[in-house]
Write a structure and sequence with these properties.
This protein has about 230 residues and is α/β, with parallel strands linked by helices. Helix content is about 30%, strand content about 20%. A four-stranded antiparallel β-sheet has the order 7-1-8-9. The protein has a three-stranded parallel β-sheet with strand order 4-3-5, with helices on both faces. It has a two-stranded antiparallel sheet with strand order 2-6.
Length: about 230
């Protein structure tokens, strides 16, 4: 049944067309088929070689309209910084106790933020957090003295991105229930961050391919030239 539904959705998509950001944002809701509020997902293929350290694209961007996802944040901090994290809305704040919780497999959070003086503690669970993509990193703003700001950014719709071995980047940039203009603005914010992260050593056409889809839908192709012009 799912295969039949997917085929019906695919017939709605003009495979020969390259959609503008506005067109894609307006059209994506027509591909909704699930009973839940599907995530709007963007996929980019970049003309970079991540085997070279200077072409490893990694960073974070706070989307203007958030992701529509409720994010639980754990913070490694102590003293005043711990109080600031709690006041900013952190779900879990701790030091040694948080280390033990993670070692025990109790990972009921999505993102980890750490004050610089707690990175020694984070290192004790790096082998657990790393494979899950949860290791705090200065490049994504999750290792910082301003833990309150970091928690606010994450709760407010920060999306972390990192290119894989084949030059691909995937991210959820909203929900199908969002208005089309909000989806468009989130797309532009995300793509702008990717463009600003372009390494000076990258040659040729930076974004080779890009598409938009829902959790359970076929993808629609973007007009690449328009994306390249976003800053």
């Amino acid at each position: 049944m799912a295969g039949k539904r997917y085929k019906q959705l695919s017939e709605k998509v003009d495979m020969a067309k390259s959609y503008s950001v506005v067109e894609a944002s307006e059209f994506i809701s027509e591909l909704k088929s699930a009973k839940f509020d599907e995530t709007v997902e963007i996929a980019l293929n970049l003309n970079v070689d991540p085997r070279h350290a200077d072409q490893m694209i990694r960073g974070a961007v706070v989307l203007p309209h958030g992701t529509g996802k409720v994010v639980r944040v754990a913070v490694f901090a102590k003293g005043v910084k711990a109080d600031e994290a709690r006041a900013a809305g952190a779900d879990i704040v701790g030091t040694d106790d948080l280390v033990e919780q993670i070692k025990a497999g109790n990972i009921n959070f999505d993102i980890v933020v750490a004050a610089p003086d707690c990175m020694g503690l984070v290192g004790q669970v790096g082998r657990i957090l790393g494979p899950k993509g949860m290791m705090p990193n200065p490049k994504t703003g999750t290792v910082t003295a301003d833990v309150a700001k970091a928690v606010g950014n994450v709760k407010g719709g920060q999306v972390n991105f990192r290119v894989d071995k084949k030059g691909n980047i995937h991210a959820g940039i909203g929900k199908v229930s969002f208005d089309a203009d909000k989806i468009a603005e989130n797309i532009k914010a995300f793509v702008g961050a990717i463009n600003r992260a372009k390494p000076s050593t990258a040659k040729g056409r930076y974004i080779k391919n890009a598409a938009l889809s829902l959790t359970m839908s076929p993808a629609i192709k973007f007009d690449i030239q328009e994306l390249l012009d976003i800053r």
